[in-house]
Write a structure and sequence with these properties.
The chain is built from 3 helices and 5 strands. The chain is an alpha+beta fold. The protein has one domain. The longest helix has 11 residues. The chain is elongated. InterPro entries: Puta_zinc/iron-chelating_dom. It comes from Pseudomonas mangrovi. This is Fe-S-oxidoreductase.
Length: 132
């Protein structure tokens, strides 16, 4: 029986994910940026799509506006989380298609800041090399 070499991880199959090392990011196609990104109000504030005065507004009302503006694709009322919109190809709204870099990196949500320390498989990454 021959072993098959996995060229890159499959996003939906966490068992194919690779133990994360910081050096991997520079040679990856940013596959983590195709995963759904759940954010909270403070993340939206940091990104700049809501203002501090909106904190007192009902989250559902904020979600309605952000859905209309195409910033979020879903609101989870029970948990008070919003899911950022993904582009037609599955990329995060804030991922540049050409450079494959985050356009809001310094303001990125906590979900992104903490990946892969937390997530579907903590400590592992859905690494896919650029030249695969």
């Amino acid at each position: 029986m021959t072993k098959l070499l996995i060229v890159g991880a499959e996003l939906e199959r966490t068992e194919t994910w690779i133990r994360y090392e910081k050096s991997m990011c520079s040679s990856c196609i940013s596959s983590c940026c195709t995963m759904p990104v759940d954010v909270r109000f403070d993340d939206l504030l940091r990104i700049g799509v809501v203002d501090e005065f909106e904190r007192s507004e009902p989250p559902k009302q904020i979600a309605k506006r952000l859905l209309k503006d195409g910033i979020i694709e879903r609101f989870h009322q029970k948990f008070g989380r919003y899911t950022l919109t993904r582009q037609g190809n599955g990329d995060c709204l804030y991922l540049d298609r050409k450079s494959r870099l985050c356009t809001i990196y310094d303001k990125r949500p906590d979900t992104c800041r903490n990946h892969p320390k937390i997530g579907p498989r903590p400590g592992y990454c859905a690494y896919r090399p650029k030249n695969a």
